[in-house]
Amino acid sequence: MTVGAKICGLTTKEAVAAVAAGGAAYAGFVFYPPSPRNLRPVEAAALAASLPPIIKKVAVLVDPEDDDIARVLAAFSPDLIQLHGHETVQRTAAVRARFGRPVIKAIAISSQEDVEKAMTYEEAADLLLFDAKAPTSMAGALPGGNGLIFDWQLIAAAPKLAKPWLLSGGLEAANVGAAIATTRAKLVDVSSGVEDRPGVKSPQKIRDFLAAVAAQNEVAS
Predict the structure, then answer these.
(1) Higher pLDDT, 219 or 169
(2) Is 131 a catalytic residue?
(3) CA torsion sign, 152 to 114 to 188 to 200?
(4) Which domain holds residue 186?
(5) What CATH number has the domain bearing residue 65?
(6) With a threshold of 0.85, does the pTM exceed it?
């Protein structure tokens, strides 16, 4: 089993260089003003220009209007669109149809009911992303990148999904191996777990995370 990694919320050329050198599968750029990882599309385009074509660029948006998506695509031209808000199945399908890009739909998970909800998106999205649901008591919680972990057994016990999916939520170099072993994830996503502080990626932590994922691939082979 080969596992790929997505490093999300990139904001500096040093972080992008670490992603490229470490062999990530996806590089995520956030377009959501409340996030400390938010970028303007032109900034993201400049950073992503150094990425090799094999690393797919992902535009991460939260409950965007069509005009918001169009502005990002015009300046940044991502390979995929990630919807990380409360987008419905119908909205997810509409975004994919209108903009002609593969769509990742993020689903916040804290219960079996949430996993079942995620499965309803299989026809609308190209990939699903399972992230931890922030508790209502958490002050300043973002749609993602909160550093929270959900019960991986919820995914391990779920019926096999027809679409590819990514595991996210509180992952870091120290626990990604256990997460992969528990869930059999083929794709993992990290943001806060490779940061020195919110919005500030650590190139060394990125390298460590990608090395930990690569180690799992070596074990599997």
Answers:
(1) 169
(2) yes
(3) negative
(4) 4-220
(5) 3.20.20.70
(6) yes
Count of CB atoms situated within 10 Å of the CB of 14? 13
184-210 mean pLDDT: 96
- pLDDT over 90 (residue 84): yes
Given the residues 68, 126, 131, 208, the one annotated as active site: 131
How far are the Cα atoms of 79, 170, 204 from residue 17, in angstroms, in the given order? 19, 23, 11
Return d(Cα 112, Cα 189) in angstroms, integer: 21
Examine the pLDDT at 144 and tell me if it is beyond 70: no
Condensed to tens digits (0 to 9), the pLDDT of residues 22-47 reads: 999 999 999 999 999 999 999 999 99
Mean pLDDT over 163-173 rounds to 93
Closest CA to 84 of 68, 61, 65, 116: 61
User: What is the Cα–Cα distance from 30 to 10, expressed in whole angstroms?
Assistant: 8
Host H or E run for residue 114: helix 112-119
Single out the catalytic residue among 8, 68, 79, 126. Answer: 8
> How many domains is the chain built from?
1
CB atoms within 10 A of CB 65: 9
- Please name the residues in contact with 201: beta carbons below 8 A apart, sequence gap of 6 or more: 7, 9, 10, 11, 12, 14, 15, 18, 194, 195
Is 8 considered catalytic here? yes
Beta-carbon neighbour count of residue 101 at 10 Å? 18
Whether the per-residue pLDDT at 162 is higher than 60: the answer is yes
Q: From CA 28, how far away is CA 35, in angstroms rounded? A: 13
Judged against a pLDDT cut of 60, whether residue 135 lies above it is answered with no
